[in-house]
Amino acid sequence: MSVARTRAVSLLGLTGALVEIEADMSDGLPGFLLIGLPDASLGEARDRVRAAASNSGCPLPPRKLTVNLSPASLPKHGSSFDLGIAVAALAAADLVDRESIERVVHLGELGLDGRLRPVNGILPAVLGAARAGAATIMVPSANADEASLVPDVRIVAVPSLRDAAIWHGGDFAPEPVEAIARETPAQSESPTLELGDVIGNPAAVDALIVAASGGHHLLMVGPPGAGKSMLAARLPGILPDLDVASSLEVSSLRSLSGRGVAGALEVRPPFESPHHSCSAAALVGGGSSVIRPGAASLASRGVLFLDEAPEFAVSVLDCLRQPLESGEVTIHRSRAVARFPARFQLVVA
User: Which PANTHER family match (predicted)?
Assistant: First the structure.
């Protein structure tokens, strides 16, 4: 049998790179070999794929299955490769059309019952695939609204592996299945506060308007109860709406951090206020295997407010030097380098 091929997306920071998934079914002792630098969670896809295929009514034959993720030098993590591995395995077993799966990028996590679970980071993944030239992307039904925010790409939403196999030409009877839903997030974490609600403090209000007009950073000094936090929280309310490119950036960061995106792009500048006990990784991003954005990146195109700044650890505050100078956070690991945008207005009190 020839090798079956399809594609998925590997995210490193906000950058998505296409990964080719190759599956080969050969004679020998039954087994499932996954190669190509997978991490621990991706390595567990072997058991998820076999159980999901069996419980979906399209079991894999008891033969030796080898799945390769290429390029092997690119780090791969997470469970979003499950759907691509499963359809490639089904194509290697001649259960679905090989040419059909080659034209489609697959993203999604499989449950043991064969249903597809939503994954984080679907917006930057679809955006990366579109920039790489992909025209059709298959995603879980719960991620369809978020994926459809990327223009000029055909989004195919499926609730289960069986439905994905049928879409690719598999000879299976359709069966109704309840799609796994994702909790619908609010369009913003909190309602936009109005500067007009502030009574008094004319000098502070004027300073806030000047900072918003010129994109200046702001230091507020005063006794407790003077209204520093109240004023800082109202700074995003007098900033202009985000343009399309900034909206995609802010929404992609929300998606990657697990906050989710509603049915429309974020159009208002974000506001982040980390606690003074936060770590350097919480402020600028980090992680051992999966690198996630921190508060500085989540505040990109908006406001980062550090209340009680003297209480922050000096080493944590020093981490802001690079993003303040370059507008970007660069996180180095032994196998990869991730970059996140971090162009924010800093408000310190």
Answer: COMPETENCE PROTEIN COMM, MAGNESIUM-CHELATASE SUBUNIT CHLI
Q: How many CA atoms lie within 13 A of 159 on its CB side?
A: 9
What does DSSP say about strands 303-306 and 154-158: parallel, antiparallel, or unpaired?
A: unpaired
* DSSP-derived secondary structure letter, 180: P
**256 and 264 in contact (C-beta within 8 Å)?**
no
Q: Is the pLDDT of residue 193 over 90?
A: no
Report H helices in 36-96: 40-43, 45-55, 82-92
What is the Cα–Cα distance from 78 to 166, expressed in whole angstroms? 25
Tens digits of per-residue pLDDT, 150-184?
999 999 999 999 999 999 999 999 999 999 998 76
Calpha distance 265→331 (Å, rounded):
26
Percent of the chain exceeding pLDDT 70 equals 97
Average pLDDT over residues 100-128: 96
Q: State the greatest distance between any 2 C-alpha atoms of the chain, in Å, as a whole number.
A: 80
Q: Is the pLDDT of residue 1 over 60?
A: no
Q: How many CB atoms neighbour CB 171 within 10 A?
A: 9
Residue 267, φ and ψ in degrees, nearest 5: -115, -10
Tell me which residue has tokens 């660069």. 330
Q: Which 3 state secondary structure label does DSSP give 190?
A: coil
pLDDT value for 272:
96
Mean pLDDT along residues 206-221: 95
Cα–Cα distances in angstroms (integers) from residue 100 to residues 60, 83, 157, 297, 327, in the given order: 19, 14, 16, 38, 42
Q: What angle do CA 48, 53, 59 make, to 5 degrees?
A: 130
Report all structural domains of the chain as residue ranges with CATH numbers, in order of start: 4-167 (3.30.230.10), 195-348 (3.40.50.300)
Confidence of residue 50 (pLDDT cuts 50, 70, 90): very high
- CA-wise closest residue to 16 among 124, 166, 101, 148: 124
- The full 3-state SS of 7-21, as one line of letters, equals EEEEEECCEEEEEEE
pLDDT recorded at residue 39: 85
